[in-house]
Amino acid sequence: MREGHASRTAEQNALFRALESARPESERICDDPLARHFLTWPLSLAMRGAAIPGGARFVSSYIDRRWPGVRSSVVARTRLIDDVISTAQDKDIEQLVILGAGFDSRAYRISRLHGVEVFEVDHPDTQVAKQGVLTRLLGVLPNHVRFVAVDFKRDDLTASISRAGYRESARTFILWEGVTNYLTEDAVDSTLRWCARASSGSILLFTYVHRDILTRPAAFAGTRNLFASLEKAGERFTFGMEPSRVPQYLAERGFSLELDIGAADYRERYYGAVARTIRGHEFYRVALARVDRRAV
Ligand SMILES: C[S@@+](CC[C@H](N)C(=O)[O-])C[C@H]1O[C@@H](n2cnc3c(N)ncnc32)[C@H](O)[C@@H]1O
To answer: Which of 50, 74, 203, 221 gives 56 a disulfide partner, CB atoms 3.0 to 4.6 angstroms apart?
Structure first.
């Protein structure tokens, strides 16, 4: 991230969600009516272009040509995570922790979460920008959301989130979407160890990238443009995992893995057969695990 600036990749994700939300209700895969409000120039301009008839299709296909597979991967994973949270909520989640929340608007747009304590943890530079937009939109910041400013590479998450009222004894859903790939191995390890202190049965959903994207990027479609944009944003990939090692890695930290699904598969879940024609971002993965201390 660039010092003093909100995360650019968080804003790009908001653009992909905003574009999808502008499609007709019967066609859209995810719906995030707040996403467009987080956009600044030049992404806000792209969104304005999308409002012109035919504009959304034009902007989306431009993005898909330059950064193959990224937009559809973010759209499908947004829906996948919305669905997982909704199912978990049926089982009475008491707390939702969103690590590296960026412009995630679930706490505001999913009405069933209004009765849940939500902790949005993020880098202070991104959080300040988000709070500004939310205050403008909603008047006041909602009572059920606590903002916790943390730099995962430097700050003590345990102390900061405890001060904000987080309870280790509560049934918790921890969401860590789009973040591990920007961190160090140590930061991922210490954050996971903190997550594992949540009450037994609590859920952790996180995303990660396949290790091969770091060691042999040329093997994946569209990596050159993607890496150039990440470099410009000051948010390069620094951490990845080999999927076959993930169950053991998580078990050593007190989790049992329940699902580990790559972009090609989660895209197919929501885009159907069309997904088989989409190339790019296959290295991106969503993992769902449960706190299970017997696994240690
Ligand atoms: C790609 S965005 C993902 C945002 C959101 N979770 C999503 O999926 O749209 C990465 C997020 O990680 C946060 N982040 C990156 N490095 C961080 C760090 N060292 N400490 C805290 N947050 C960090 C950024 O502020 C940003 O919100």
So the answer is: 50
Structure tokens given for 280 = 């790019």
- How many percent of the chain have pLDDT more than 90? 89
- For the chain, give the longest Cα–Cα distance: 56
Kindly report, residue by residue over 193-208, the tens digit of the pLDDT: 999 999 999 999 999 9
Which residues are 286's β-sheet partners? 207, 261
- How far apart (Å, rounded) are the C-alpha atoms in residues 212 and 219? 8
What does residue 29 show for φ and ψ, rounded to 5 degrees? -95, -35
Give the C-alpha separation, 56 to 46, whole Å. 9
Q: How far apart are CA 265 and CA 11, in angstroms?
A: 25
Phi and psi (nearest 5°) for 83?
Answer: -65, -40
pLDDT of res. 227: 94
Q: What is the pTM of this model?
A: 0.96
Distance 31 CA to ligand 1 centre (A): 21
Residues with CB under 6 A from ligand 1: 1, 7, 9-10, 13, 100-102, 104, 122-123, 126, 150-153, 177-179, 182
CA distance 173 to 196: 11
User: How far does residue 178's CA lie from ligand 1's centre (Å)?
Assistant: 7
Spatial contact of 280 and 68, defined as CB atoms under 8 Å apart: yes
Q: Which long-range contacts (CB under 8 A, 24 or more apart) does 142-145 make?
A: 142/107, 142/108, 142/114, 144/107, 144/113, 144/114, 144/115, 144/116, 144/117, 144/118, 145/107, 145/108, 145/118, 145/119, 145/120
What is the β-pairing status of strands 203-209 and 172-176? parallel
For 252-281, the pLDDT digits (tens) are 999 999 999 999 999 999 999 999 999 999
